[in-house]
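Narrative of activities, Objective 1.

The group set out to show that a structural description can be obtained from nothing but a protein's sequence at a throughput compatible with the screening campaign. Below is one input-output pair from the validation batch, recorded exactly as produced.
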Amino acid sequence: MNRVIVTVVGKDTVGIMAAVCTYMAGKGINILDISQTIVQEYFNMMMITDIKACTVPFDVMSADLQKIGEEIGVQVKCQREDIFDKMHRI
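Output recorded for this entry:
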């Protein structure tokens, strides 16, 4: 499975999408679908990505994005699609 769900949540600031998407582009990660909302001052984004051509392992990608999130004041979480589906099945 090459698809990964990436969620970004936190207070809205300039450059959140730029930081996350710049990293992804640099590592060969393709964004298949994206949804973003801002409710008052809170930013929420969910992406479905394809990591087939990613130049780093999933664990490294996840840790890097988490670190980027910490640097810009948001939480970034990555989950493989199959695990995400199982966790959200009701």
